[in-house]
Amino acid sequence: MIRLLEANKVHFELSRHRPDSIMLTASLVGERIEIDVFEDGHVEYSRFRGNEDVEDDVPLLEVLLREHGEE
Fold it and tell me: Can you give the residue ranges of every domain in the chain?
């Protein structure tokens, strides 16, 4: 999977959020893809699409972080 991302010049980051997988977070224009590669070789992914508008409403950002952050 990493070679595929590199061959297509897709920016990605590696992280680990589960004990049985490595997550690749790929950034595309208007989209982010979280790709979980599991120890047994299977792959699962989630796509997040948006318009990439730049926001400057800091009070709204604070509300979003409070409402959706971990407690």
Answer: 2-68
Residue 3 has which token pair? 């070679």
pLDDT, tens digit, 9 for 90 and up, residues 7-40: 999 999 999 999 999 999 999 988 999 999 999 9
Q: With a threshold of 0.85, does the pTM exceed it?
A: no
Per-position DSSP letters for 41-64, written without gaps between them: S-EEEEEEE--------HHHHHHH
**Tokens 């509300």 belong to which residue?**
63
Tell me which amino acid residue 54 is.
V
| More confident: 51 or 27 | 27
CA geometry: angle at 3 spanning 47 and 41, to 5°? Answer: 70
From the options 3.30.70, 2.20.25, 1.10.1740, 3.10.20, give the CATH code of 2-68.
2.20.25
